[in-house]
């Protein structure tokens, strides 16, 4: 059995002087920084272990080989399963035992769904960034950015819902705003032109908006509750 495995092993180049025997599908090899396409050259300090020039089928198979994207892929994939499991547990055990309302179920679902989308988008990018088509790689990168923004905005949903729980009007205003931003950011960031130079300013505006949006409801909540000196604000 051991000899059979050795015969099916391929030597994968790592750098200009190291070769590892690794069990991988035929057609996959690892490259040095100097050997990869220009669009994959993001970090010159990562010198080895690059996958490149792969069709979609081999990109999927590369999930099970050791490369410089292995940790990125599996950490996000396991993160997805973690949030998926938490979602099932919350929906079937935690929320019913707490006599949660229908709104609680909806908010919890949206929040966890956003986190799962974020994880899956990152898995897709790190898995398919080595695609032989630069266009495909760029699209996955844009989808990864979209997933990050959706994950951030998902954090706002539960915060807004419970912070303004006693103020239904403003709660609805901020929730609708957050959900609208989620959709707008997603469709903007998967647009083919998103990563072009022409959209450079728009990318900056999108990320600043996503990151800074949380300040608005926070300041408003503090003001509605009597300012920084109020006991509820200090406790929070």
From TrEMBL:
GO cellular component, one term: membrane
Pfam families: HlyIII (PF03006)
Topology with respect to the bilayer: Multi-pass membrane protein
Main localization category: membrane
Residue numbers binding Zn(2+): 126
GO molecular function: metal ion binding; signaling receptor activity
Subcellular location: Membrane
Superkingdom: Eukaryota
InterPro entries: AdipoR/HlyIII-related
Keywords: Membrane, Metal-binding, Receptor, Transmembrane, Transmembrane helix, Zinc
Segments traversing the membrane: 71-89, 104-128, 140-165, 171-190, 202-223
Family: Belongs to the ADIPOR family.
PANTHER family associated with the record: ADIPOR/PROGESTIN RECEPTOR-RELATED, PROGESTIN AND ADIPOQ RECEPTOR FAMILY MEMBER 3
Descriptive protein name: Progestin and adipoQ receptor family member 3 isoform X1
């Amino acid at each position: 059995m051991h000899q059979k495995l050795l015969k099916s092993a391929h030597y994968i180049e790592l750098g200009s002087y190291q070769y590892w025997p690794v069990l991988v599908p035929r057609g996959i090899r690892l490259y040095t920084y100097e050997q990869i396409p220009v669009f994959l050259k993001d970090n010159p300090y990562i010198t080895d272990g690059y996958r490149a020039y792969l069709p979609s089928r081999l990109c999927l198979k590369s999930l099970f080989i050791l490369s410089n994207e292995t940790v990125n892929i599996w950490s996000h994939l396991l993160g997805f399963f973690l949030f998926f499991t938490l979602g099932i547990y919350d929906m079937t055990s935690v929320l019913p035992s707490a006599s949660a309302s229908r709104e609680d179920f909806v908010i919890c679902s949206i929040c966890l769904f956003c986190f799962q989308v974020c994880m899956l988008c990152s898995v897709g990018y790190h898995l398919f960034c080595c695609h032989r088509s630069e266009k495909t790689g760029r699209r996955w990168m844009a989808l990864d950015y979209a997933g990050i923004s959706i994950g951030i905005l998902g954090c706002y949903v539960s915060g807004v819902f419970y912070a303004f729980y006693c103020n239904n009007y403003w709660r609805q205003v901020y929730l609708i705003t957050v959900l609208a931003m989620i959709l707008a950011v997603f469709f903007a960031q998967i647009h083919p032109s998103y990563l072009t130079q022409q959209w450079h300013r728009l990318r900056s505006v999108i990320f600043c908006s996503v990151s800074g949006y949380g300040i608005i409801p926070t300041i408003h909540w503090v003001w509605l509750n009597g300012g920084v000196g109020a006991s509820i604000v200090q406790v929070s």
